[in-house]
Amino acid sequence: MNLQRKIPPPSGPDATVEDVCRAMAEILGEGVDVHRCLAAQALGRLGTPMGVEPLTEALLDEDSDVRTDAAEALSKLADSRAGAQLLENLLGDPCTEVKLAAIDTLAKLNDKAVIPWLRRIVRGRDVEIAWDEDEFYDSGWDDWVDVQIRAVQALATLNAGESVPDIVEAMRDENAQDMTEAAFKALARMGKPGIDALAAFLGEESPRLRRRAAAALAGSDDENASQPLSRALADPAASVRMAAMGALAARKPEDGRLVTLFDDSDAAVRSEAVRLLGRFHRRRLPALLRDEDVAVQLAALAEIPEIPDDETLLEELRVKTDQGPPALAAATAKALGAKGPQHALNDIAALATNTGRPVEIRLGALQGLAESADEAAVQSLIDAMDDDARPLRLEAMSALARIAGKDPVWPNPAGTALLSALSDERDPADKDTPPVEARSAEPADPEAGPETASEDDDGRFPTSTVAAILDHEPDATTDGALRMPGEGIELTPVDMERLALARNIKGKKRMALTQNVKRHDDVRRFAARVLGDVRRPEVASALAAVLNDRDSELCLAAADSLARIAEHLEPLPAEVGSALMAAARSAKSALKLLLIRALAAVEDEGVGDLLRALLRDEDSFSRIEAVHALRKRGQAGPEVEALLLDPNPTVRLSAAEAVAAAGGREAIDRILDFAFSFEGYHGVQAARLLRRLNAAEASGRLIDVLRDPGQMRTWSVAIEALAELNDTRQWPVASAAAGARQ
């Protein structure tokens, strides 16, 4: 049952963090177990030293969950006053979570007294330490393995070099868990003893161990790691060299030892070196374009900022576009168009329009032209809008939208071409041609098969075992092999019935791999889609003009673009607002959502009335968008407040955000009531909104709730809300309406 209630007016002054802390400490000492757990968590989030004493006392609570929450809260506070009790819990408390939190906190406190005990934990399940013996039998998991890993990490934090032999011995225990990854990272933080231990692992036969040791050494800034790291960079295994390079490049890309990897004997290492380090060694990239391995060339093409005007190199690259593998040819064409000298654009433009070349290569050329944004390149992109290959059409139109949106001059050729495509002013050659049939996942054409195929083969293959049986025609070879009589086998009535049923089995459904759509319609739809990146009033008007088109896909694309334009262009032209309102009154759900978003940027007085009417729409998404639009327009009134009781939780939250955005005393009252409605479902979210309004006043009124024993049923909501209101991390508030649009 929903809990609808009214929070009473404040009975005292606004509450401070100290007031909240005292209230939580009182509940932690005297409340029921559920409230004690929540109070312990809240004290950890408050981050005040006042919470240390009550949390330390809670480490002796009879409830293991309370002890766990108290220990985790103390790990956030990291106060030395709790050190002694945490050490006692580590040794004597059987709860695993308490031990883990105690280890973390003691390591943060740099408490050296815990080191001997941590070493004993690393070595094994010490009998002098209390463990939960029942957990293994109940869950099948030994909690010691979790504590062991945490102990290793804590020893590294404490820089306990004397524990390195214990860690190494634990790693080499064949009957224990594999802790090498965590242990290697810990050893790298433990000074010379840890570095020496990692260096010893570089002599292991296992490349996996050498690889992990190399990565740990490369991630350490300890000067003792320098010499063994050089060994790792020259390791016989390419995977080890690559691991060392990756970790060192992330930490210190200017390290001179990395340069030698550009000439590594392994192509995978060279290509990775280019990817990681190419931007820091740009002078080496032109030479790497001549590398014998395709992957290295591709990496160099991606990293090189500019292809030099070297005719010998340019000719080599032209050869790659003509004779290289498709992926390399495409990447080369793209790089020449985007990064090559001006005179190379003519070759790339010719390649982009050459229908005799593979689509992949032409697409690369087109992408290069798009990045150059040269006047001639723009014309080539415009020409590609009518290409037979759909990928080229879409790439060209996307590029034109980017160019048109960035060009400060309006109108410009790129934008004009897209508007012409949208408004159907162009006269494409295929306007009346039938659509290309979508390809389906059919078996390969037998004519493309082996030359031994039968001449009278009709090209049909059975699509199932049953079909193969039914279509079988005996021949001398199979009859002899199967010893079947020439006249066949006589079928019984039961056989005949089963075969009849088999023929009625529906075949597998085949999905089309491409859209079955006319090129002309495809161009219009995609023009509508990409024009949303061109934020001009004229574009908005052109998009509004097609909202009533018979092509529903075109209408959706136009509405989506109008919604995107409305985010940046306010107000929209008057004729656009009229078209949006007319379309929204009769639109179906998907289209209606987009139209409502765009209406938020329309100044027409009738928009407010339309949006308020949509607050009663049966579709919850429409109600959410209507609330968001009214909030953006500053018109969130009583109709929006009424949605705080909407059946849909996302609608309720979006309404609460709108109410909070309006501000004022009434907003605090409404959001406090909202926090306790629906059994506190939105308590934490409401607290985040209250933090924007007046955290101190809201905290005082929530503390009043905790002082009333008659409202104990709602204390959980109040405690969590107080923790959120006064959280030192101050998380931002996520928008419900934004989440609904994702």
Notable characteristics:
742 residues, mainly alpha, Leucine-rich Repeat Variant, 41 helices, globular, disordered C terminus
Give an account of the 3D structure:
By secondary structure, the protein is mainly α. Among the domains are: 20-77, Leucine-rich Repeat Variant; 88-187, no CATH class; 188-252, Alpha Horseshoe (Leucine-rich Repeat Variant); 269-408, Leucine-rich Repeat Variant; 636-742. Helices cover 60% and strands 0% of the residues. The protein has 41 helices and no strands. Helix 23 packs across helix 24. The longest helix is centred in the last third of the chain and has 24 residues, at 683-706. The two termini are 31 Å apart.
Computed Rg:
36 Å
What's the main sheet like? none
Uncertain segments are 432-461, 464-470, 472-482, 737-742
Strand content: under 5%
- The CATH topology annotation of the domain at 269-408 reads as Leucine-rich Repeat Variant
CATH H-tier superfamily of the domain at 269-408: Leucine-rich Repeat Variant
Shape annotation: globular
CATH class of the domain at 269-408: Mainly Alpha
- Strand runs, count: 0
Overall pLDDT:
87
What level of helicity do the residues show?
55-70%
Corresponding CATH architecture of the domain at 269-408? Alpha Horseshoe
The SS-based structural class is mainly alpha
The number of helices is 41
Distance between the termini: 31 Å
